[in-house]
Design a protein that fits this description.
2 copies of one chain form a homodimer. Chain A is an alpha/beta fold. Chain A folds into 3 domains: 250 residues, Rossmann fold (3-Layer(aba) Sandwich), CATH 3.40.50; 129 residues, no CATH class; 55 residues, no CATH class. The first copy, chain A, has 16 helices and 10 strands. In chain A, strands 2-3-4-1-5-6-7 form a 7-stranded mixed β-sheet, with helices on both faces. In chain A, strands 8-9-10 form a 3-stranded antiparallel β-sheet. In chain A, α13 links the parallel β6 and β7. The longest helix of chain A is centred in the first third of the chain and has 24 residues. Chain A starts with 5 loop residues before the first helix and ends in a 5-residue tail after the last helix. Chains A and B meet through α8, α9 and α10 of A and α9, α10 and α11 of B. Chains A, B: This is YcjX family protein. Chains A, B: It holds the Pfam family DUF463.
Chain lengths: 491, 491
């Protein structure tokens, strides 16, 4: 460094002090929210985050955010992307996603794997708070964390023993729709002597087979309850013993005493010890490093696909919802001690793809999701967590209208159907423009006779053509999402 | 748990106590070694670990380990694979590697990515130590950790500032053989105003270009000095800002004062802050979680390929060796404080592929490697680290003999040449059997005129056919490797 004169030094010192003081002041005034976004059954997380960012940074360019108070009241100034908080976490690739949506033909963005982050700085004029006397402008820093729904669904494992988890998972694997896929695997596990010396190679082989089953459940059956979640997105843990266990099929037939005394080199002992390592090193690590720091959570769920697929698939969504709600339940559940309880104070469930049904069905959609969320409400103690449900479309892919059918007016939607090949991967083959009435959404949890008499046929749509990355994407109720998640921090 | 009678309980208590006492005793008697294996320039790490494990677990089935005292003296009993220490570290896939070597036609095993582990329990009769009075049998637990050479070469970054690192790396990129590949990238970096506000997208783009250059240096030019090493094997960090920096081209022209005061949102400030995050979260993390725990280290280097490729490539190997030696240097260097200094007490450099030259060249090979290691010895303070060099072949792929050439007897080797396609990937196309004299290895560091007058043509060989996974693999000096690394722990 070049030599500095004494006066330059003291000038710099003063400048620094001033800067420090300003920093301290704005630290007091400014707000910070860490928003966690996760999803069940390919619910369109990437499109959601892309739209949320797009709505905020383009506000002024045709944004339709009338239910978002800071915009409605004119307090919103501007938002921009700024460098994220954690350098070692992959960045949410907004540019790639918005490019896909605004390309010609438009495609849905690639799904993300694992965790990613993005930070927005949102400038606003404080109107209704004490802040208005101190400053003309305040900043809300919004950290968005995108993570796989499976990681959230792993949390209940923290309060289960290996035996309990085995029994629950075995129960799932012997019921529809998993049973017919699981038979051969379960037969092999049934052959194992729990107290024989473990062969690491054999356990690795069976764990691979179990992982292949989870992939099938996730991608072919479209199920949500995939445990352990890290098995299907292993990242750096690929090939590590911590991902080489599986549910033991006869866990309830094992002699309790022998089980207690089994050493780590027996079959059951090795499985148990890997399960407990998974709890500590994977689940609790995610809990500690991420989950504990989230302020607000949005869980996206596609209810339409499970309705298409039938009773068993819908029941899986119900189970996934109740497992998620468990993680926000304190006290009784015993997963989380008060001391290390998450600080999340708002929890939003978004029923995505609301644009895939006709608008008069939205009421039924919300009502259905509400029942999924609140069916166990009496048993739960949310402890100041505000829960809300909304039917949304992050990026609206259809236009709605009315069509004449046999003399009657019927509501319809129109859009470009997504060819089958797109559903299972990344291809971009699109169907032609179609106009349909995709079906009626049941407004309450369907009963057995419902599944027999009704058939749903919700269609997947491609994004609309001609979207522009510098304008706001068309949406359904993203303003209400923002209102619930952010408005109280921008008063 | 079932109810137990009082007497059963006390019996179990006694049994447990006995077990505890035995455990305590053997914990005192038994030895533990954590061996770290790494390599430079595709040196055959996977084949090395596979052979080392194979020699030990098959001892008795034709092992030729005459220079390994425990075997020579008859104290070696047996070795077996046991579950590894860290469940969250991928397991070294011995079975896949030995299968490749013993398949027909035999192929070299797939290279590993990132870190992996394997644990052996080695039983022996203590002969020359106080242990012999206490027990008939002792166990040496050997933890083998396989990690990329690039991670070792990242350690010197810990003592460099971003400016120093930039200058050093820029120096490399403007010299042979990197210069002609780097021009376009360096021109783009030269365009950057260091104090302009940073665009994350632009920095990400340039970092991608820099990473592509590193891939070229590594895989096309076969160079060893690849910094930052994590860029070419990112794992879970793919897409994270911590991997989105690069050397600043004009780092020495930047005004020192302005550089000091640059904030994190300027171009230079953002690059500097990511560099320092990389130091902390990647390099120091590896240092703390792994390097600090290693007892012994073997560095494998293929000297033949750089000799084939010429002066610049060989100079890169020299630089890599001196950077590695730096990491074992305490006190003066300032990388590691005494308090957190590594505990490695033995460091072995193995010149691999000794079977790829005729046996009378091994002396020259060791002498060459010795000079690479010891050329800076006077400046170094190894502080009780024993350093050794050996010319080895983990899995011998040739037979040596004598051939008549123009009336003279010349030494030759015979083997199956590896087709070009295998060199650059995983294909298994093999050439025919060939008999050659591949050339003379220089016994000292080649000078300028040497490179002009000599040409080398070392050939890559495929493994010999007919190897058996239950017998010891043919090798060159693996017994001396074991003697140096393990014998003193099995006295």
């Amino acid at each position: 460094m070049a030599l500095l004169s004494k006066s330059t030094l003291s000038k710099r010192g003063l400048g620094k002090l001033k800067h420090k003081a300003n920093e301290l002041l704005s630290r007091t005034l400014d707000q910070q929210v860490t928003l966690a976004v996760t999803g069940l059954s390919r619910s369109g997380k990437t499109a959601f985050i892309t739209s949320l960012v797009n709505q905020l940074i383009n506000e002024g360019n045709g944004a339709k955010l009338s239910f978002f108070d800071p915009v409605h009241n004119g307090n919103f100034i501007a938002a921009k992307r700024v460098p994220q908080k954690h350098y070692h976490v992959p960045r949410f690739d907004y540019d790639a996603a918005i490019s896909a949506l605004t390309s010609d033909p438009a495609t849905w963005p690639e799904p993300t794997h694992g965790i990613s982050e993005l930070r927005l700085a949102i400038r606003y004029q404080p109107k209704n708070s004490i802040l208005k006397y101190a400053t003309d402008m305040a900043t809300l820093t919004l950290d968005i964390t995108d993570y796989p729904g499976e990681w959230l669904l792993d949390l209940p494992m923290l309060k289960q023993t290996y035996q309990e988890w085995s029994q629950q998972t075995h129960g799932l694997m012997t019921s529809k729709p998993r049973d017919e896929y699981s038979k051969s695997f379960l037969a092999k596990v049934a052959q194992l002597d729990p107290f024989a010396p473990a062969s690491e190679e054999l356990l690795a082989e069976l764990a691979q087979e179990y992982t292949a089953l989870l992939q099938t459940f996730r991608h072919e059956l479209g199920l949500s309850v995939i445990q352990p979640g890290r098995f299907i997105l292993p990242g750096d843990l690929a090939g590590a013993p911590i991902l080489e266990f599986f549910p033991f099929a006869n866990a309830d037939n094992i002699d309790a005493n022998a089980y207690q005394n089994a050493t780590d080199d027996s079959v059951i002992g090795m499985l148990r010890s890997r399960y407990s390592q998974y709890q500590e090193q994977v689940v609790r690590k995610f809990y500690r490093e991420h989950f504990l720091r989230f302020d607000r959570q949005i869980v996206l769920a596609d209810c339409l696909k499970p309705l298409n697929k039938g009773k068993a698939s819908f029941a899986d969504l119900e189970l996934a919802m109740s497992m998620i709600l468990e993680s926000y339940q304190y006290g009784k559940s015993g997963i989380f001690s008060r001391l290390f309880s998450p600080k999340i104070d708002k929890l939003l469930f978004g029923a995505t793809k609301a644009d895939h049904v006709t608008p008069e069905q939205h009421g039924a959609m919300v009502s259905l999701l509400n029942q999924l969320v609140h069916q166990n409400k009496n048993q739960l103690n949310y402890d100041a967590v505000a829960v809300k449900t909304l039917a949304i479309a992050a990026v609206k892919a259809t236009n709605s209208g009315v069509s004449k059918h046999q003399g009657n007016e019927v509501p319809v939607i129109q859009g470009r159907s997504l060819a089958q090949s797109e559903l299972s991967g990344t291809a971009s083959v699109f169907g032609e423009k179609i106009t349909v009435f995709p079906g009626a959404v049941p407004s309450e949890l369907p009963r057995d006779n419902y599944w027999q008499s009704n058939s749903f046929n919700f269609i997947e749509f491609a994004p609309l053509s001609g979207l522009n990355k510098h304008q706001c994407l068309p949406h359904v109720r993203m303003d209400q999402v923002l209102q619930f998640l952010l408005a109280d921090k921008m008063m």
